[in-house]
Design a protein that fits this description.
The protein is an alpha/beta fold and 340 residues long. It has two domains: 203 residues, DHBP synthase, CATH 3.90.870.10; 102 residues, 3-Layer(aba) Sandwich (Rossmann fold), CATH 3.40.50. The chain is built from twelve helices and 15 strands. The chain has an eleven-stranded mixed β-sheet, sandwiched between helices. A four-stranded parallel β-sheet has the order 12-15-13-14. α8 links the parallel β10 and β11. α11 runs parallel beside α12. The protein is globular. The two termini are 27 Å apart. The chain binds threonylcarbamoyladenylate (TXA) and magnesium ion. The site of threonylcarbamoyladenylate has 28 residues, from β5 and β6.
């Protein structure tokens, strides 16, 4: 499908973003997690444009972004006490809650479900924007379906140039991976997606919350598809290089993503045993200090670099299985290359 062709601009002009959104257009918006592709969340026409620009299937529902609590109660019919507890602690912030929707929420937003996902982002410019509008903003991550999420205005531009009129530039995203999603359906409290709020932080507030099974081909949260965040470069975890070593050997240059620099020499000698060494390796480090929040912030921009540098293969190390390392490993699992 060919939408209208725009001369996409990047800037900090809030009144312009407001005007465009009110007129039913889409705008790239900054949040603390990743950039969103925003449109009027109560207008079927704007929502349709989002799916079209992203090339996203309609079975994958969208999150509504709000700037104040009054708006939450306009959109949902019930907020259980356990949900209130999370909201009080983590909003504005990288937490999305799934609650029973009111009629005002279009079915297109929820892909026909009776439950809607809502979040209040922690970004001054976007909070100002949201509080200047009378409607919530539907905003999926501003990447084409199944590609890596954008963490800067330039990333959005590189992929949606020509498809939207404006990108509001709010700088680099501080968290760097998407929000944690928690659903409140009946008595069941489920963590549907790990993200910027850690599992430990959620469990501390709500010990009875359970982590949803990791996604299958037909997931509970429909967007939680098995392969999702993949760059064009084929990514393989370090523990699987044996299965691929003949292809790696054939490849000219190989990317290696280290979680932290201290593991470099060990990996260097492992790679040498399969014939990969010296300037055939392009090294990337997610965190200089072994800090998982820093690693999360750098993850998606590092995956983009592999493509920008036209690498065909890259090996990555898993993050330690705690704090934001869990969300990083979730994204890496979905980004890894698997044979058809
Ligand atoms: O950090 C974030 O959450 C970013 C920023 C822009 O806010 N947004 C984001 O949106 O990651 P998106 O569309 O890329 O991912 C939203 C996820 C999808 O997996 C979708 O299936 C799930 O949330 N989701 C949305 N509404 C849902 C609903 N009503 N029921 C179940 N899952 C839902
Ligand atoms: Mg996304």
């Amino acid at each position: 499908m060919n939408g209208p062709v725009f001369n996409t601009e990047i800037g900090c002009d809030l009144p312009r973003a407001i005007e465009l959104l009110k007129a039913g257009n889409l705008v790239g918006i900054p949040t603390e997690t990743v950039y969103g592709l925003a449109g009027n969340g109560l207008s079927a026409d704007s929502i349709f444009k989002i799916f079209e620009a992203k090339n996203r299937p309609f079975f994958d529902p969208l999150i509504l972004h709000i700037g104040n609590m009054e708006m939450l109660y306009e959109l949902v019919s019930d907020v259980p006490d356990s949900c209130k507890k999370l909201i009080e602690k983590f909003w504005p912030g990288p937490l999305t809650v799934i609650l029973p929707k009111k009629e005002i929420v279009p079915d297109l937003i929820t892909s026909g479900s009776d439950f809607v996902a809502v979040r209040m982002p922690k970004h001054q410019l976007t909070l100002k924007l949201l509080n200047s509008l009378t409607f919530p903003l539907a905003a999926p991550s501003a990447n084409p379906f199944k590609y890596v999420s954008p963490t800067s205005a330039l990333h959005v531009y590189q992929q949606l140039n020509g498809k939207i009129p404006y990108i509001l530039d709010g700088g680099d995203c501080k968290i760097g991976i998407e929000s944690t999603i928690v659903s409140f359906m009946g008595d069941e409290i489920k963590i549907q997606r790990l993200g910027g709020i850690t599992l430990e932080e959620i469990m501390q507030e709500i010990p009875e919350a359970i982590l949803a099974n990791q996604p299958e081909d037909h997931p509970v949260a429909p967007g939680q598809l098995k392969h999702h965040y993949a760059p064009g470069c084929k990514l393989i975890p370090v523990d699987k290089i044996d299965s691929w070593d003949f292809e790696l050997i054939d490849s000219e240059k190989i990317g290696v993503i280290l979680f932290e620099p201290t593991s470099k020499s060990e990996l260097e000698s492992d790679l040498k045993t399969i014939g990969i060494s010296g300037n055939r390796i392009k090294w990337y480090v997610l965190t200089e200090s072994g800090n998982s929040a820093e690693a999360a912030q750098n993850l998606f921009s590092t995956l983009r670099k592999l493509d920008n540098e036209l690498l065909k293969w890259a090996i990555f190390q898993w993050a330690p299985e705690k704090e934001l390392g869990l969300a990083i490993n979730d994204r890496l699992t979905k980004a890894q290359y698997l044979p058809k």
